[in-house]
Design goal:
single chain; 332 residues; alpha+beta; Jelly Rolls; Arc Repressor Mutant, subunit A; eight-stranded antiparallel β-sheet; six-stranded antiparallel β-sheet; disordered N terminus
Length: 332
Amino acid sequence: MAPTMDPPVAAGPQSPGTVVKRTITEEAESYSSSVSGIDIESVRAGTGNGPTHVLTATDDRFTFTRCRIGFPMLSSATLDEGMTIVAYVRTAPPGSRWCEIDLEPGQVLLYGPEALHTARNQPGLEFLFAVTALERIHEHAEHLGLRIKPPAPGRVRLLADPTDHDLVRQTFQRFADAAENDAHGVAAVSDDMHRVMTHAMSEDAEIANVIGAGSRIDSRHVVLSCIDYAESIDRIPSISELCLATHVSERRLRTAFTDEFDLPPSRFFRVWALEEAHRRLGRSSAQPRTVTRIASGLGFEHLGRFSGQYREVYQESPSATLQRSRCVGGSG
């Protein structure tokens, strides 16, 4: 069972200067985000204040995305080999967390190739990021006469220098404004975008924190291994199963999920399974389905408790979702 995805932004190759805008309502069944170099998987974690808005613009050197979160999501992703990311956090409501870092407005994060990304995105979070090939950063640094030190493969770096933050903020926002107002206007600020990404990875950039460093077990690896295992068995896994699948103790398992999502594993997978239940209940199908069969198949042991949790997230009962899907299927 694949988890649902983050808001759809851009998929496949695009021509330079392409701008895509998407508005994802809370009623959307699933979310898929496929930006050049990274695919993000997410599950909805509750109701929010409105839709999620996503803007993506492509240049021949990078792909830029701005996202305004309208409802809570738990996300995970792995950056492709040879790719790197510069991300800027514009607003960060309490509880927003990336890669074991509690987000604050103004933070700048750098992702090395093959870095793992885990996120607890809360309503009101707004972030902007650009994805590019690390080779292009090296080429541009040579052109500028800069010495760079990008994050090592698998590492995530939090910058510390407020001056660097301000430069990234101004440039990213200017590019976002250009993309919002005129798809052809992004070319005028593309050079500045590429330049500021290169400067963020220079040797002079001051580092506040590095995730994925050292010999300790990386919480992100534990979490992603657990998600892979849950997908393979197609239901909520037990704590003992997760410990066996990841070769860690129960204490380390709980710490990993707290590090990444500020949630215990049992609650994370309950959210994960609720989203899959919502998808199955809302799917038009000629096959006989019942709320009980779907809930029990996903590992929910108490139907009443499942119904209450489902209503809390989707603002309707599971039977109402199922009935609506049957009406839609019957009308076709």
